[in-house]
Amino acid sequence: MLPKTQFTLYTYKGGLYGWKVAMVMTELGLTYESIYLDFDKREIKAPAYTKYNPNGRIPTVIDHKSNNFVIRESDAIIAYFVEKNDTAQYDTAQRISAVTPEVQDPPASMALLTGLWSGPYFGQAIWIKVYHPEKVPSAVQRYQKEALRVIGVLESVLQKQEWLVGGKCSVADMAFITWNNGSLGMCLNDVEGLELENDYPAFHAWPQKLMARPAIKSVWKLRASLQG
């Protein structure tokens, strides 16, 4: 039996990476079914899933209309949707890819910086603060310092322009939204003297503009409804 939707998205209700993929797919008006893996039951390591993603990580997307083509890792999935490739092209109108001759750094490559910046620093700070069995203040401080350095870089860009690249909201911006909304407060809530709104005003306003977009708002609302 053929799938009812073009894509299947394997993801996790409480994670962040799968939700940014869902936002991009929703922005593009793509039809997809989300399958939420149960981490407690170790479904992410079960053969039914690892046959698609041997690394046992989320998210994974299957493109059913392209011979069930499998794409793994969130940034690779986003690039698949917005960059021209041999399989298909899904953002022909450049709604969120914003690639123009004037843009030397395509948004998809800018989006990869979330994997190099936000993910490691925010994620490690939260892991050590909340989940690590031992308290290691020096490690937390290190990752908080790096997170603030990244925020400073973004602030320097956003002070000069509304969006990161291309003169409009693109996947470069969307790639950061789940980290900014889902973990930033937890990462930095105990940094003495920090006031994001005053210290980094352009950065602080940026996710609020993103969350005002109907597609992003609807996906984030769905995420919130599944957390209970």
Automatic annotation (TrEMBL):
InterPro entries assigned: Glutathione-S-Trfase_C-like (IPR010987), Glutathione-S-Trfase_C_sf (IPR036282), Glutathione_S-Trfase (IPR040079), Glutathione_S-Trfase_N (IPR004045), GST_C (IPR004046), Thioredoxin-like_sf (IPR036249)
One term of GO molecular function: transferase activity
Pfam families hit by this protein: GST_C (PF00043), GST_N (PF02798)
Keyword annotations: Transferase
UniProt superkingdom: Eukaryota
The keyword Transferase appears for this protein: yes
Domain GST C-terminal: residue ranges: 86-228
Domain GST N-terminal, first and last residues per copy: 5-89
Family designation: Belongs to the GST superfamily.
Protein name stated in the entry: Glutathione S-transferase C-terminal-like protein
Originating species: Laetiporus sulphureus 93-53
